[in-house]
Structure formats: C-alpha cells, structure tokens
Amino acid sequence: MVKSIVMIGNGGHAKVIKDMIQRNSELELVGILDGNIEEYHVREDIFYDHTDQILKYIEYQFIIAIGNNYVRKRIVDQFNLSDDRFAAVIDPSAIVSDSVIIGPGTVIMPNVVINSSSTIGAHSIINTGAIIEHDNRIDDYVHISPAATLAGTVSVGSLTHIGSNATVIPNQTIGSKSIVGAGAVVVQNLSDKVVAVGNPAQVIKNID
To answer: Do the annotations mark residue 143 as ligand-binding?
Structure first.
C-alpha cells in the first residue's frame, strides 16, 4: 500500500527529501506545508499550503523536512500529533539492517549504512553517506551530517548535531544538545551542551 506523504518545510533539505520520496515506490508526495506559503495552490499534482493548516490534512502522514533539530521539535510540540501521523522516510539506496529500529518522522538519506541492532529515535536525520555501526543508540531530534561515521556501540543524546565527516570511535557517549564539529574525531565521552572540534575532539565551549 502506497503511503501519502505531506512534507513540512520547503527549503534545501526538503528538496532532497522530495527526491527521496519520489524515488520510493511505496511513498507518494501529495502536499507541502511551509510558513512562507501564503495561500493554497496546486502545482504538478502537489498541493501547497501554510503550515498552520496542518490539521486539515490529518488523514495523511507527515515528514518534517527541516534540518534544524530545534525547529523540528518545536513543530512536533506545537501541533501535538500522535506518532502514527509521522512517516519514516528511507532512501532506497540506504543499507539498513533488519534489526534496526527507526522512530517516526526520521529520515535516512541516500547511501547511508546502519548496521545491526542500532536504534534511531524520532524526527532525526541520518544524512547522505553517514555510517552508523552496530549497537548504536541515536536519540530523538538528532542530525548526523553527511559522511559522518559512528563506530560500534556509540550513544548520541537528543538534539545533538554531529558535523560532516566527523568520526566517533567505539563505545563513546555524546550527550544531549551538543555539537561535534565537521571533521572532528571523538575519542572520549562528551557531556550535554558542549561544542567539540578537532582531532582529537576537544571541548571549546559550553552551550547555554
């Protein structure tokens, strides 16, 4: 059965998710909601409307196509929809073990690898070419950026951003609301609300 999907968001990240949906024979993009759309209209068989009209389209499943972790969470909190109203979108090119659990509203982008017994929370982004090794625990509203590599048994807390080409060695824990910079190599645990950069990754500041 084909799932009818409405995207929330209409920026650069949404363009990629639109392509993913259109490549997936099990999904159909029927609508796009965004705060910058002033009035309802239809173009190329896809309707466009303001995000505030979301409850008019409750019969569909939604995906929040916005890269900012905090904005995704704000939208979920604002409209208070049940988990079953959100679809997980997985690109056909991704390699995902059958033992992996993926939460609602999460996006698994092209050429991602997620290996056995890993868990990905709700409304997270595993971006293009990222590798999530076995037994990882990725919490809600996380963004793993393109080409990042998380080795085995890594945990990442909610609302954390892992930058492009970052590497996390096995058995490390990264706290919530933290940022790991692009290209960083994480060789020890990181706490909540820190920014870490470099090789090896060092904390350069705390986040208020």
So the answer is: yes
